[in-house]
From TrEMBL:
UniProt cross-references to Pfam families, sorted A to Z: Hexose_dehydrat
A GO molecular-function descriptor: lyase activity
Boundaries of every dTDP-4-dehydro-6-deoxy-alpha-D-glucopyranose 2,3-dehydratase domain copy: 34-234, 268-472
Domain of life: Bacteria
InterPro entries in the cross-refs: EvaA-like, EvaA-like_sf
The protein, known as: NDP-hexose 2,3-dehydratase
Length: 477
C-alpha cells in the first residue's frame, strides 16, 4: 500500500491522480468501511417508488391536441413524438416517443487533496429508476430546473464550488451527450473541480480515492451513470503513475496503452476525418411530432403506459416517488422503461504492442450531430429477434459467444435513474482471440485507448455508453 503523505514527497514527479488511482486504503476513508456507510445511507434515505396510472400524476398531463406529456411549469422535460428518417436498409423510417429536455444540467465531482493525494467527494443518492435505489453519484447531479429552484425545494449542496464565484481549479469541463436513443439532443455539463479550502461535511457524501471508486466500478448497479461519464473526462496520466505494477499481462497492456508514446493504427486526424465523413454521408432527418402521431407507427397508450405493439423497445410509465432526503420529499413523473437488458461491448486487441479498441460510428434517433463513436456492440439483443441476418448488429454474435477467459470486464450498470426505470446494460471488454477477423468495415475503426481517453475530454465524440465503458476500462490497469 502507498502512504498518502510520504509517497507523494518521495515521488514529486509522479502523477497525483495516478497515485490516487493506486490507493485502495489510505487511512482517511478505508474501502472496508464503504459498505457500512452505504447501507446506513440506504436505511436513512427511506424511499418508495410506486407505479401509478398517468391520471394520478401530480403536475403532469397530456397536452390537448398533441398528446405530449408535459409538466404544468413548462420546465423539467416533456415526452413528445419524433419522426425519424435514416438511410438504413432495414427499418429506415419510424416514429417513437422521446424525451425532450433542452436544459443543460450539471454533473460535477469535487476533488480535494489529503496528504497530497486527490480524493473525490461522492454522494449516496437515490433516483426513482435505480434498480437498488441508492447509488454512488457525483458531488453535484442536478438539472437546471433543480438548481434554479423550480420545484420549490431545498438547494443543491456544493453547487457553489462548480458555478459560484469561489469555484476551484477546473480539471475537466465539457458538454457531453446522453442516451440519444431516448433523448432528443440532450446534453449535460461534466465537470471535475479541485479545491484547497475547507469543504463542509455531509453524511450523504464520502471522500474516496480514484482507486477506490474504480474498485467499486466492478460491482453491479452501484456506480451510477453520471459518475461514470464524469470519470471518463479525467485527463490521461502524463507522468509516472506512482502505482504498484499491474497484476497481469492484460493490465500491463492497458496501462502502457493509456500512457501513450506509441503510434495508433488510426491517426487521430484520420479518425476524426472518418467520423466527419460518416456524419456527412449518413442520413438522419429528425422531426418533432405530436406524441399522438406515434399511434400509427405501432405505439399504443392506455391508462398505465405507452408501449409498442411488438413488445419491444421501451414503455413510458408513470411513478410516484417518496424520498426523505431529496430537495423535494415527494413527486410524480414519467419514466422510460426499456423492455430488455442491453449489451455494450468493446472488443480490444494489441496492435503493434498498443491495445486498441474496435469502435463504431453509431447513428441514434435523437443524436445532435448524426453519429458519435460507440462501443463495438451497442444494442438491446431482444429488439433483433426475427430480423434478417444482415440487419443484426455487427459482432453481436462474437460477443455473446466469447470465451469467458477472454472477458476482461463484465458488469451490469444501471443507466440514468432520473429518467429511465430499471434501464440496464451489460458492459463488457472482450480481448479478441487469435482467429478474430478484425478488419473494420465502413462503420468501425480501431482506436487506441489513449485516443479514446483524450477524445472523451471533448464534446460530441464519444457517446455516453462508450464513456461509461471507458471508465470501466480504466479499472483494468
Amino acid at each position: 500500500m502507498i502512504d498518502t503523505g510520504q509517497d507523494v514527497r518521495e515521488r514529486p514527479r509522479a502523477d497525483p491522480y495516478g497515485i490516487s488511482a493506486a490507493l485502495l486504503d489510505d487511512g482517511i476513508r478505508p474501502l472496508a468501511g464503504f459498505d457500512a456507510w452505504l447501507t446506513g445511507r440506504q436505511r436513512a434515505q427511506r424511499h418508495r417508488i410506486t407505479r401509478i396510472p398517468f391520471a394520478a400524476m401530480d403536475g403532469w398531463s397530456f397536452e390537448p391536441g398533441t398528446g405530449n406529456l408535459v409538466h404544468h411549469s413548462g420546465r423539467f422535460f416533456s415526452v413528445e413524438g419524433l419522426d425519424v428518417h435514416t438511410d438504413r436498409r432495414w427499418a429506415g423510417h419510424w416514429r417513437q416517443p422521446i424525451i425532450v429536455q433542452p436544459e443543460v444540467g450539471v454533473l460535477g465531482i469535487l476533488v480535494k487533496r489529503f496528504g497530497g493525494v486527490p480524493h473525490l467527494l461522492m454522494q449516496a443518492k437515490m433516483e426513482p429508476g435505480n434498480i437498488n435505489g441508492v447509488q454512488l453519484s457525483p458531488t453535484v447531479q442536478a438539472t437546471r430546473s433543480n438548481y434554479t429552484g423550480v420545484h420549490g425545494g431545498r438547494g443543491v449542496p456544493y453547487l457553489n464550488h462548480f458555478l459560484g464565484a469561489d469555484r476551484g481549479r477546473v480539471i475537466a469541463d465539457v458538454l457531453q451527450s446522453e442516451q440519444a436513443a431516448w433523448y432528443l439532443h440532450k446534453r449535460n455539463r461534466n465537470m471535475i473541480v479541485e479545491v484547497t479550502g475547507p469543504v463542509e461535511e455531509h453524511e450523504d457524501f464520502r471522500w474516496l480515492t480514484l482507486g477506490q471508486i474504480r474498485q467499486l466500478l466492478h460491482r453491479d448497479h452501484l456506480v451510477n451513470m453520471d459518475t461514470r461519464t464524469v470519470l471518463a473526462c479525467l485527463p490521461a496520466p502524463d507522468g509516472p503513475l506512482g502505482a504498484a505494477p499491474p497484476r497481469d499481462r492484460f493490465g500491463a497492456l492497458v496501462r502502457q496503452s493509456m500512457a501513450g508514446g506509441f503510434h495508433p493504427v488510426t491517426p487521430t486526424a484520420e479518425l476524426l476525418s472518418w467520423l466527419t465523413d460518416v456524419r456527412t454521408r449518413r442520413q438522419l432527418v429528425q422531426r418533432r411530432v405530436p406524441l399522438n402521431d406515434t399511434a400509427g407507427h405501432g405505439w399504443h397508450r392506455d391508462d398505465d403506459g405507452i408501449a409498442h405493439r411488438d413488445g419491444r423497445y421501451f414503455t413510458v410509465i408513470a411513478v410516484h416517488v417518496e424520498a426523505g432526503n431529496r430537495e423535494v420529499r415527494s413527486w410524480s413523473q414519467p419514466l422510460i422503461a426499456p423492455v430488455d437488458q442491453g449489451v455494450v461491448a468493446l472488443i480490444v486487441k494489441p496492435i503493434g504492442g498498443v491495445l486498441h479498441a474496435l469502435v463504431q460510428a453509431r447513428v441514434d434517433a435523437g443524436a445532435v450531430n448524426v453519429a458519435e463513436l460507440a462501443a463495438t456492440v451497442h444494442c438491446q439483443p431482444g429488439n433483433y429477434r426475427d430480423v434478417p441476418a444482415e440487419a443484426r448488429p455487427a459482432y453481436l454474435d462474437e460477443v455473446l459467444t466469447s470465451d469467458p477467459a477472454r472477458i476482461r470486464y463484465d458488469v451490469v450498470h444501471t443507466e440514468e435513474g432520473g429518467r429511465f426505470y430499471h434501464a440496464r446494460n451489460r458492459y463488457l471488454v472482450v480481448e479478441a482471440g487469435p482467429d478474430f477477423d478484425g478488419t473494420p468495415g465502413d462503420h468501425h475503426r480501431w482506436v487506441s485507448l489513449r485516443q479514446l481517453s483524450r477524445l472523451a475530454r471533448h464534446y460530441n465524440y464519444l457517446n455516453v455508453e462508450l464513456r461509461s465503458l471507458l471508465a470501466g476500462v480504466h479499472t483494468l490497469q
